[in-house]
Amino acid sequence: MNNKPAFTEKRFLITFILVTSLFMLWGVAHSMSDVLNKHFQNVLNVSKAQSGLIQFSVFGAYFIMSIPAGIFLKRFGYKAGVILGLGLFATGTFFFVPAANAESFGFFRVALFILGCGMATLETVAHPFAASLGDQRTSDRRVNFSQSFNAIGAIIGPAIGTFFLLRATSGGHENSLDSVKLLYAGLGGFILIVAVAFFFIRIPDLIDPHSNSDAPIAAQNIDIVPGKRLFQHRHFVWAVAAQFFNVAAQAGTWSYFINYGHEKMGFSDEKAGNFMVLFMVMMALGRFVGTYLMKFIAPNKILAAFAICSIVACVIVAQSWGWTSYCALLSINFFFSIMFPTIFSLGLKNLGSHTQQASSFISMGVVGGAVMPYFMGKIANVDVAHAYYLPIICYIVIFLFAARFFKVIR
Fold first, then answer.
1. Residues with Cβ < 8 Å from 230, sequence gap 6 or more?
2. Where does 6-121 show beta strands of DSSP type E?
3. What is the average pLDDT across 84-96?
4. What distance in Å separates the CA atoms of residue 135 and residue 114, rounded to the nearest whole number?
5. DSSP, residue by residue, 308-366
6. Pick from 8, 297, 283: which is nearest to 142 by CA?
7. Measured between alpha carbons, how far is 54 from 21 in angstroms, rounded to an integer?
8. Mean pLDDT, the chain, whole residue set
9. Do 281 and 382 touch, CB atoms closer than 8 A?
């Protein structure tokens, strides 16, 4: 008898496809904000450290919104959570129009905060949603597969952002924010279409998807120590910390990628933006490769190995060795690829009724992305290459989680 657990079940397939599409959608928005970072340096004359407040606005929203989103999810279910997230997401994008008319960096940060609240809600909902659509033993693969399409969205985002924003700047329209209005209004319209689609599509009620007593115990997300409160589960607490440092490393690395290409490689902003598309391709490739490897290698072992490789890459990037360092910078996204979904899925193991609340706290850990760009920006004002020493701290924490503290303790 073949007891190998299936990736998902036929009855969940359509739902899984729809949920996966959400991962791609916020991938587009996240990666466009990194192009926006450089565009605002050019157009609004803000410093690198000030432009890092873009990420503070977006990721700070995760800190504020993740817990309310988790409560909403527990009360109203996955479908309502998706619609709420998409509604906030679209509202934030439409706020870009009056912000551009006012030419106000502060107004843009308000718009980004609302947009971030929408993405925080979607991430709080989508990760446990994808994890729940089948056997718990394959939840790591499902979340990584869905996150692979987030990486595809992250490829599309810089391509669109570079074409509409950096290309416009290089064409001599430095004082125009019309391209920002057009880009984000179009994105908001598309998000509304997706929200309407979710409203009319019938989605199974999956509030407690692992309550089937006929399934093997290993296949179910059951709290093996039901007397414990959520924060008494060590692997969950470490997952929150690891996610904080993981997204801190991601946000800082992405925020100054274009600056590195411009200042260290002599690229134009547009050419550096085009290389960011390749940067995101590396992440997509890493997620598909990582998802495949998880059929044979334990997810925590892959996570530990990728954390070590990221540390080595950061050291090389900081040396400013021309193409050697630039290739190392490109490789960081490959190694970073599986970190977010794998930390998320490992942190949700065997939490039973705590799962949805745990998802909101792990999503809240994303606030790390609000911190690192500012401090990396302070160093980047002097030498952008040396700023890449800071993410090494983050990868050390991730390695510790993957090597030891991921284990579920009875």
1. 236, 351, 354, 357, 358, 361
2. none
3. 94
4. 35
5. HHHHHHHHHHTTT-THHHHHHHHHHHHHHTTHHHHHHHHHTTT-GGGHHHHHHHHHHGG
6. 8
7. 25
8. 84
9. no
How many CA atoms, within 13 angstroms, populate the side-chain half-sphere of residue 108? 25
**What is the DSSP annotation of 236-254?**
HHHHHHHHHHHHHHHHHHH
Give the model's confidence band at 302: pLDDT under 50 very low, under 70 low, under 90 confident, else very high. very high
Query: Greatest CA span in the chain, whole angstroms?
Result: 68
Q: Cβ distance 58 to 369 under 8 Å?
A: yes
Q: What would the mean pLDDT of 138-164 be, rounded to a whole number?
A: 81
What integer is the mean pLDDT of 72-76? 86
Nearest-CA neighbor of 28 among 165, 227, 191, 225?
Answer: 191
Cα 356 to Cα 32: distance, rounded to the nearest angstrom: 29
What letter represents residue 25's amino acid?
L
For the residues of 189-211, what is the DSSP string, one character each? Answer: HHHHHHHHHHHHS-----SSTT-
Q: With CA atoms as reference, report the closest residue to 365 among 31, 62, 70.
A: 62
| Run of H or E including 28 | helix 13-43
Q: The tokens of 296 are what?
A: 């044979």
Query: Which among 334, 33, 270 has a CA at the least distance from the CA of 157?
Result: 33
Q: Is 76 helix (H, G, I), strand (E, B) or coil?
A: helix
Domains of the chain and CATH, by start: 12-203+226-405 (1.20.1250.20)
| Selected residue with higher pLDDT from 84 and 17 | 84
* Strand, coil or helix: 271: helix
Estimate to the nearest angstrom the gap between the alpha carbon of 188 and the chain centroid.
Answer: 19
The answer to whether 265 touches 272, Cβ cutoff 8 Å, is yes
CB 180 within 8 A of CB 374: no
d(CA 264, CA 321): 9
Distance in angstroms (rounded) separating the CA atoms of residues 148 and 155 = 11
* Dihedral over alpha carbons 272, 275, 279, 285 (to 10 degrees): 170
By percentage, how much of the chain surpasses pLDDT 70?
A: 89
Contact indicator for 360, 85 with CB cutoff of 8 Å: no
SS3 content of the chain, % helix, strand, coil (to 5): 80, 0, 20
